[in-house]
Specification:
single chain; mainly alpha; 2 domains; two-stranded antiparallel sheet; binds zinc ion
Amino acid sequence: MWKQNHRVKSDVLRNYSDWLSYKEVVTLSLETLSLPSEKEEVKASKRGRPTADMLKCTEYLRSGQKINVEHKLQLTMVDGKVCNALSQTSSAKCYICQAKSKEMNDIDKCLQKAVHKEHYEFGLSPLHSYIRFFEYFIHVSYRLDIKKWQIRSAEDKTQFMEKKIQVRNKFRSEMGLIVDMPKTGGSGTSNDGNTARRFFNNAGLASQITGVDEELILRCAALLQAMSSGYKINADKFKQFALETAKGLVEKYPWFYLPPSVHKILVHGSEVIESAIISIGELSEEAAEAKNKDIKSSGT
Ligand SMILES: [Zn+2]
């Protein structure tokens, strides 16, 4: 399998490396490394991470001069499941600081934890981040009346389900969005990048439907938009804004622990942005996502 990927990748680089800018070559090479079929986390953990020696040096001529281009692989377009598998971290923990679910709302404690800087290279996955933030807000919304992390009693379960149905119906009637419904075929839910972007682009209506704080939705929207903009981000300002947002969320909804994917952006986002070789938005996984269908249909 790797041999085949390697051939495709080398062709891409050989054909285009004389006119693509450095960052475009990087993007293409990563796109061709999209993980095929099976479940992503299983594949990743079975196979281990690809290494740079799987790529041959690319040679090309420019003005009669031979130029050798060496390639360095960085896994910047992988989603949380793959990061967890590669870093051998449970999905309930942060793969950067190892914080557990129940520690996530103590932001200052999380900031004091030792971090695995080598995992910064996994990037921030702007597209998946949109979906994970959106899901955070709707799960908070379902619990606004009961104010509990775990739904155990029959009474809580009934109340939770009633609120969930009410919120989903409002999304459908007021925004035309089908939210949090299982996909036909059984994999995942209807929550995709489009649903999440519509939510964050209409913070006022999203707040009315869900009952969650509009200001907090807007703050998260600003962070997500900055991350996917492709512009270079001022990491210090991002950090300050993200930490204020994290503290705002846990103050307002202390009974709901920040999910690891939301914690990653708010607590570690600025360091990941600072360590990225190009702007974090250019490391978007959208190209890889676009290849999912091809990869699945190839059955490799
Ligand atoms: Zn962490």
